[in-house]
TrEMBL record:
Entry keyword annotation includes Oxidoreductase: yes
Occurrences of domain TauD/TfdA-like (ranges): 88-268
Source species: Cadophora malorum
GO molecular function, one term: oxidoreductase activity
Name recorded for this polypeptide: TauD/TfdA-like domain-containing protein
Keywords: Oxidoreductase
Membrane-spanning segments: none
InterPro entries hit by this protein: AlphaKG_dependent_hydroxylases, TauD-like_sf, TauD/TfdA-like
Length: 313
C-alpha cells in the first residue's frame, strides 16, 4: 500500500538562522549537483547605478541632501495638502515587526517609493539598513541560478485569516524586458513574515507550507542583503526616500526610554509620470495603495498608530 507524505513547514522562522541556512543549502545542492541555467528570460547580470554595495559608500554626503530654507518652505506648503490625524489607535495583536521593537529583517514594502520621516529617535539601536536588490540578484544569478527559478515561480502568500481570500499566489521575482523608453529591470517583492508568520500571528494553519527550496531562497535573499548592506544612522528630522523596487530594507531592534521613543512616519509614494511598469500580479496591491486616491484620503498622521489591516491580508 502506498503512503502519502504530508508536506510540512520547513524549520524557518521570521529571524533567519545562518547555520540552518547553510545546512539547508548544502542538502539541496547535494541533491541537485548540476547548476541549472537561468530560468526563462532572466538576465545573467543587471548593470547600472542601481547595483551597489554598502562598501561603495564611505561618506555620508554621498547619500545625504541638506535642506535649504527654500526646501523647507516648499515642504511646509506641501504639508498643507495632507489631513492631520492626531488620534491614536488601539494596537491589538501585533503581527508586523514594523510595530514592535524587534529586529525587522530585510524585506520590501508595497508601493514604488518608501519615505520615512524621523520625528524622534530611540535611546539605543534601531539602525536602518539598505541593500541593492539588484546586487543580490546578480550574486544569486551567478552562484545559484536555480534560486532565480524558485523566486520567479508562484508562492503561497498568507491571507492572515481572511475568509474570502485565505491566501494568494504570486512570484517574488519579476523581469520586465527593455522597451522603448524603459530599460530592462528586475523587481523583487517579498516580506518574510508572509511565509513564517510573526509573534502573535503565525502562518495560518491549513494553507500550503513553503518548500525547502523556498526556505533556502528566503534565507539567501536575507543573508546576501546583509552582506552587501549599508547602515544609516538616522537623526531626528531626517527624511529617507528609497526605491522600493530596487532596494531591500531592514531595521535593527531597539530600546526606548522616556523622552527617547522611536517615532517614524512612513509614506508610500508614487510618481505616475516616472513610475516603473508594475508587474501584472502586483497591480491589485498597488491599486489598493494608489488607484483613485483623493486628496481627502491622503493622510499625514502626527501620532503613532497601527494602520488598518496590519498583520492581515
Amino acid at each position: 500500500m502506498s503512503q502519502t507524505q504530508t508536506q510540512t513547514q520547513p524549520d524557518i522562522s521570521y529571524h533567519p538562522d545562518f547555520q540552518k541556512y547553510q545546512l539547508r543549502s548544502d542538502k539541496i545542492k547535494a541533491l541537485n549537483p548540476s547548476i541549472e541555467k537561468l530560468h526563462g528570460s532572466f538576465p545573467s547580470q543587471m548593470k547600472g547605478e542601481l547595483v551597489w554595495e554598502g562598501k561603495d559608500y564611505t561618506d555620508e554626503k554621498q547619500w545625504t541632501l541638506v535642506l535649504t530654507e527654500d526646501h523647507l518652505a516648499e515642504i511646509d506648503d506641501a504639508l498643507k495638502a495632507f489631513k492631520d490625524l492626531s488620534q491614536t489607535a488601539v494596537a491589538g495583536n501585533i503581527g508586523a515587526p514594523a510595530y514592535s521593537t524587534d529586529k525587522q529583517v530585510f524585506h520590501t514594502d508595497a508601493g514604488d517609493i518608501v519615505s520615512l520621516f524621523s520625528l524622534n529617535v530611540t535611546a539605543k539601536g534601531g539602525e536602518s539598513k539598505l541593500a541593492s536588490s539588484w546586487r543580490v540578484y546578480n550574486e544569486v544569478a551567478k552562484t545559484r541560478p536555480d534560486i532565480i527559478k524558485t523566486l520567479s515561480e508562484d508562492w503561497v502568500f498568507d491571507g492572515y485569516g481572511n475568509p474570502e481570500k485565505p491566501y494568494t499566489t504570486k512570484p517574488l521575482l519579476y523581469h520586465t524586458p527593455a522597451k522603448v523608453g524603459s530599460p530592462e529591470r528586475v523587481i523583487t517583492q517579498y516580506a518574510l513574515r508572509d511565509f513564517t508568520g510573526f509573534l502573535n500571528i503565525p502562518r495560518t494553519p491549513g494553507i500550503s507550507p513553503i518548500t525547502e527550496a523556498q526556505a533556502e531562497a528566503l534565507d539567501a535573499l536575507h543573508f546576501l542583503a546583509e552582506k552587501f548592506s549599508l547602515t544609516l544612522d538616522f537623526q531626528k528630522g531626517d527624511v529617507q526616500y528609497l526605491n522600493n523596487l530596487s532596494i531591500f530594507h531592514a531595521r535593527d531592534e531597539f530600546t526606548d526610554e522616556p523622552g527617547k521613543e522611536r517615532h517614524w512616519l512612513r509614506l508610500w509614494l508614487r510618481d505616475p509620470e516616472l513610475a516603473w511598469e508594475t508587474p501584472e500580479q502586483l497591480k491589485p496591491r498597488w491599486d489598493e495603495l494608489y488607484k483613485d486616491v483623493t486628496e481627502e484620503e491622503q493622510v499625514f498622521p502626527l501620532e503613532p498608530r497601527i494602520r488598518r489591516g496590519a498583520g492581515k491580508a
